Amino acid sequence: MRLLLRSTLTLFLLGGLSFTTLAQTMPPAAAPAAEAVSSPLLKPGLVKDQSYKKYLYQRYVGNEQATRVIRLFARRQTGGKLWLGTGALAIGFVASQTGTKTSSNGGTSTTTVTPLGYGLMLGLFGGVGISKLARYSNEKLYQELSDYDRDHAFSPNVQAKIE
Predict the structure, then answer these.
(1) Residue 29 has pLDDT above 90, yes or no
(2) Which residue among 64, 113, 142, 151 has the highest number of C-beta atoms inside a 10 angstrom radius?
(3) What is the CB neighbour count within 10 angstroms for residue 17?
(4) HSE-up of 100 (CA within 13 Å, CB side)?
């Protein structure tokens, strides 16, 4: 019972760390820029000399709404990666606790984790992480910003999240 309690508490601790260590991405220092952008927006795979987010921060340096959307997508991508990393750590910890252990009085105890247990942990952490990475990918960010360049408005769900 102690092993189960210790494993559960460690799992909750690792899960809590994933919520408290979300990295904040800061945009580069703002420089005065024109409101209208003349060149077409590049797709994520076409930016070679720097990261896609840096390119977008430089492109929309004077536009507060676009900068908020870029930060939103960056935070959600970081959150997805943290969910996946925390899940991998939790599964690794649980896997390391399986096996037969001998106590000091000579008794042995065998601990196993069923495939259902692994599936639940993988489903929880992997599902949340992958869904965040899929919903807030650079391709989706490109679609939002290209629509914003055309219509000067974001989709309703993105607009609700940046307000």
Answers:
(1) no
(2) 142
(3) 13
(4) 4
Angstrom distance (rounded) from CA 119 to CA 71: 33
pTM over the 0.90 mark: no
Burial of 139 (0-12, 13-18, 19+ CB in 10 A): exposed
Q: Are 90 and 129 in contact (CB under 8 A)?
A: no
Beta strands in 4-162 (DSSP E): 99-102, 108-111
- Rounded-to-integer distance, Cα 52 and Cα 147, Å: 17
- DSSP secondary structure letter of residue 60: T
Distance CA(35)–CA(39), nearest Å, equals 13
Angle value at C-alpha 76, between 74 and 79, nearest 5 degrees? 110
Q: 102 has which bridge partners?
A: 108
Segment holding 34, helix H or strand E: none
pLDDT at 104: 83
